Amino acid sequence: MSRTSQLGRLPAVDDVLRRPELVDLTRTRPRRHVVDWVRRAIADGRQELLSGNHYSEEELLNRVLDRVQQLHDADLRRSLQPVINATGVLLHTNLGRAPLAPRAVQRMQQAARYTNLELDLATGKRGRRGDRAAQLLAQLVGAEQALVVNNCAAATILALRAVAAEREVIVSRGQLVEIGGGFRLPDVFREAGVTLREVGTTNRTYVHDYERQCGEDTAAVIRVHRSNFVQSGFTCEPSTAELAAVSWPAGVALIDDLGSGCVTDLSILGFSESTVQDSLRSGAHLCLFSGDKLLGGPQCGLIAGRSDWVDRLRQHPLMRALRPDKLTLAALEATLEIHLAETTQQELPLYQMLHESVEQLRTRGQRLIEQCHQLTVDVQLIDCCSQVGGGTLPGVELASCGVAVRGISIDRLASQLRNASIAVQPRQQDDQLLLDLRTVLPDQIQQLGDSLVASIAAAATT
Fold first, then answer.
1. Angle between helix 20-28 and helix 31-50 axes, rounded to 10 deg
2. Which of 61, 240, 373, 460 has its Cα between 20 and 30 A from that of 292?
3. Where are the chain's structural domains?
4. Which run of H or of E encompasses 150?
5. Alpha-carbon torsion 273, 277, 283, 284, what sign?
6. Angle of the 131-141 helix axis to the 326-341 helix axis, nearest 10
7. Residue 423: how many other CB atoms lie within 10 Å
8. CA–CA separation, 301 and 155 (whole Å)
9. First to last CA, the chain
């Protein structure tokens, strides 16, 4: 049969759309999407025929329908959907960092309709967006004033633009870090329109290095949290208090970019992390940090400090471009209320995960093992280690417990879990697939077990 005759067997777009399964699909998905998938599926079939493959009309139609279903499923996987985090990384950037407290979720639902975002209900006049969240934040960390923007990088750019545009900012060479997504601090400084003045060496910087670099054009001194790595050995860098003790010229701002947003003493867990309160008490004029890390709230950038400096940021034209939306503010207010009420361990998922004992995790893991008792692969409960992640507490490990799966293709099983009806992101470690239970919420164990059993069965037959 000629190639032209073969191409003539391809179904028309309208004929495919009239198939019952696609009629049903257009009831739940936008018709333009379904039409696009059909056209792409027919184009794929045309390429197969041009490559020398031969099919009957019925076979071609079935292949097109199968391909449409594949494109539909792939589109669904790209949409935002719940994922069970079994990686053991508590603040997993790819999975949205801190899971929100039920109270925060409820507030977001309430704010999804009309809300008094910029309305003063007492006077009926225009109010200031995020005013209550800023007041709660200032109260929590002991600052004169606070401000909320859409992420910590935005907070850094706003602070630099408002305080030091076209002037110089001094920073230790050992703090010029690269953060997630390949963003580098020197690039952020450049986009903020300031001149970067590096001092010290990669591993050792002293107070006198900052003092020697300070000149007439100096507008700010900034300290930066290293985020994803730890420097140890022959190292030295000044603390915030040591930099605050310097007699800087009038108008020079001391900025502490803390990143992690720790507002709670974590020493009870054996962690050593500077808090925002410590930085402000030590003399920082402005503290910058994230809302979705150790605060346990939504993604946002938080700024706290002295009123004169915060006012300069609030009044800068860039503030309008960086302001948060009403859903973020609603979730942030609820999260800050939880911290002020000192109920973090009872309400914030992040702090519940941090405080859970290995014994509790092991009990939960035993339930998961029982769901897998009929499987022929090797499924065992093992001890493992979790990480806080998200550029927070680098190098710190938490004792944990997980379910390890062996005796099956780990790559295939991981793929099946990610594409299960309830998606699961596992950890692949050596020759085993590991489900670290520290990051699996208690009410997800049954779902995790169902996904695991179904995924092992699917991976074994692939």
1. 140
2. 240
3. 3-78, 83-95+351-461, 102-347
4. none
5. positive
6. 30
7. 14
8. 5
9. 34
* pTM beyond cutoff 0.85: yes
Beta bridge partners of 429: 432
Question: Which SS3 state, helix, strand or coil, does residue 236 take?
Answer: strand
206-260 pLDDT, tens digit per residue, is 999 999 999 999 999 999 887 666 666 777 888 999 999 999 999 999 999 998 8
Q: Cα 130 vs. chain centroid, distance in angstroms?
A: 22
DSSP readout, 53-96? ----HHHHHHHHHHHHHHHHHHHHHHS---EEE-SSBTT-GGGT
Do the two domains 83-95+351-461 and 102-347 of this chain adopt the same fold? no
Amino acid at 448: L
DSSP per position, 282-333: HT-SEEEEESSSTT-S-S-EEEEE-HHHHHHHHTSTHHHHH---HHHHHHHH
Under CATH, to which class is 83-95+351-461 assigned? alpha beta
Supply the CATH classification number for the domain 102-347.
Answer: 3.40.640.10
